[in-house]
Design a protein that fits this description.
alpha/beta, 12 strands, 12 helices, eight-stranded mixed β-sheet
Length: 325
């Protein structure tokens, strides 16, 4: 299978390595020092169980590769409009396009009307570019439970060995097609799940990170420090609880969120989430697809979000002052 990873950052690199190991023909779209390092030295993945280096063709021009069976976009959400404008050479009639994003998918409201209510996430595709250039008809949601950081161009240090990935179609009528594609991936070093409704794993992950993303970016603390301090943990749990209520208002009942379990078993991770990494490196931050769209969904569902309504403007201002939003 021909697979293009569009955006060879941490998640893109981890998926690229797994697909190469599974025997697929993998290429990558990347720019700057990352592109040069991947071209000259290959992709090196380091995790607690060891390291491996993979060779793959890389370019900043999609036309260099031509149509693919699958494109997996792992760029940050502020870059998606630009991706949509340049992705055409990678798309054949049957090409599926997976989106691995932090937060809510731009196609979240397509074909989805919980309790008959129309869902508006138009802020995630305000000019309609993603719908026009790619379309929900060929879109897949990709939810990845893993993380890490780029230690130097071409070298990715994963926060864990292995990980979990859930993949499902934007539209339910594409369930059989997406299932066949996921089965053909034959990835063995990650736990890969086929999601009939990809919104379910999206919420499961999003609820778990919704509290720490913003608080880590505001404070500079690690995930473990936010969990380990009673005051910041309380704010984190308040945001997560509000996100959980929004998901449940949309009929997503299996969110796996349990505040009492979190209090009893706080995460001790020294990891910095991607939002804090972006802030520290001066990169555009994913405010729209995480906190602002969560506020939108809360308003549409009639749910009060006092904790979210404090964290969001503070985070947006922090990002603006840093030139990251």
């Amino acid at each position: 299978m021909k697979v293009c990873i569009y955006g060879a950052g941490v998640i893109g690199g981890l998926l690229a390595g797994s697909l190469i190991k599974a025997g697929h023909e993998v290429c990558a779209i990347a720019g700057g020092p990352q592109r040069e390092a991947l071209r000259d030295k290959g992709l090196t993945l380091v995790n607690p169980s060891g390291s491996a280096t993979y060779q793959l063709p890389v370019s900043d021009k999609p036309a260099d590769f031509g149509p693919q069976d699958l494109v997996i976009i792992t760029t940050k959400t502020p870059a998606l409009d630009d991706v949509a404008e340049h992705i055409a050479p990678l798309l054949g009639p049957q090409t599926m396009v997976g989106f691995s994003v932090n937060g809510v998918f731009w196609f979240y409201g397509d074909g989805f009307q919980p309790h008959g209510a129309k869902i508006d996430v138009s802020r995630l595709d305000p000019n309609g570019v993603l719908h026009k250039k790619i379309g929900a008809e060929r879109a897949l949601g990709v939810v990845v439970w893993s993380g890490g950081e780029i230690r130097e161009p071409g070298v990715i240090r994963a926060s864990r060995a292995g990980g979990r990935v859930a993949i499902g179609p934007a539209l339910p009528q594409n369930a059989a097609r997406s299932r066949a594609l996921v089965e053909a991936m034959n990835i063995t070093d990650l736990t890969v799940e086929i999601a009939d409704d990809v919104r379910v794993p999206m919420w499961e992950k999003f609820i778990s990170v919704s509290g720490v993303f913003g608080l880590c970016a505001l404070t500079g603390a690690t995930i473990g420090q936010i969990h380990g301090n009673p005051e910041t943990q309380a704010v984190m749990l308040a945001v997560q609880s509000e996100a959980d209520r929004i998901a449940r208002a949309h009929g997503i009942t299996d969110t796996k969120f349990n505040a009492e379990q979190v209090r009893a078993n706080p995460v001790a991770s020294p990891h910095k989430p991607s939002m804090l990494q972006d802030l520290e490196r001066g990169r555009r931050m994913e405010i729209e697809s995480t906190y602002l769209v969560l506020q939108d969904l809360a308003r549409q569902a009639g749910i009060a979000t006092p904790a979210l309504d404090v964290v969001t403007p503070l985070l947006a201002m922090r990002a603006r002052v840093a030139g990251c939003y």
